[in-house]
Amino acid sequence: TFEAGIEKKTRCRYPRIWQFLTKRVMNLHSRVTFILGGAASGKSAFAESLCLSSGKDRVYLATSQVFDDEMRVKIDRHLHQRGTGWTTHEAPMDVAPVLDSLAADQICLVDCATMWLSNQMLAEADLQAAQHDLLDALQRCAAEVVVVSNEVGHGIVPDNALARQFREAQGRLN
Q1: Phi and psi for 122 in degrees, rounded to 5?
Q2: Are the C-beta atoms of 140 and 102 separated by less than 8 Å?
Q3: Are 174 and 112 in contact (CB under 8 A)?
Q4: Which of 32, 97, 102, 156 lies deepest, with the highest CB count within 10 Å?
Q5: Phi, then psi, of 59 in degrees rounded to 5
Q6: Which residues are catalytic?
Q7: Is the pLDDT assigned to residue 4 strictly greater than 50?
Q8: What CA–CA distance (Å, rounded) separates 25 from 8?
Q9: Exposure letters 39-57 (e unless 16+ CB within 10 A, then b)
Q10: pLDDT of amino acid 14
Q11: Is the pTM of this model over 0.70?
């Protein structure tokens, strides 16, 4: 927790780094929680537990599209894991209308920003404009929002241009 980190301040070997991190943590927008991690690392389950513990009406904003059997199995697994009590909206490209429709007594899980970005790239959308629209919609949203995304920059450099373009775009989005 942040409070536990304060106790460590006096032992920090790099006070300038501590000062930077402290400032960044204190400036986070409290209505948006960002869950970042590797593929299949439990991000969605963790995000779902945050939404469940909120006590608010739960909304699931699904950004994936089913192009093959593997994705169908993954989506079915997520549906089973999530259980009942969620209102689900499928918005693989334009999440703004869903986010704009939410109320303050709701919590929305956006799962996930990586699939949303993949959809944008496959559609050859203007990534800068799409990202701007997404961030604006998150800022306007009256509900609490939990966004799941994949960390893709810690691995090897991809061997093809499209994969490198995706890695760079995902880094900017995160």
Answers
A1: -65, -30
A2: no
A3: no
A4: 102
A5: -125, 135
A6: 78
A7: no
A8: 15
A9: eeeebbeebbeebbeeebb
A10: 53
A11: yes
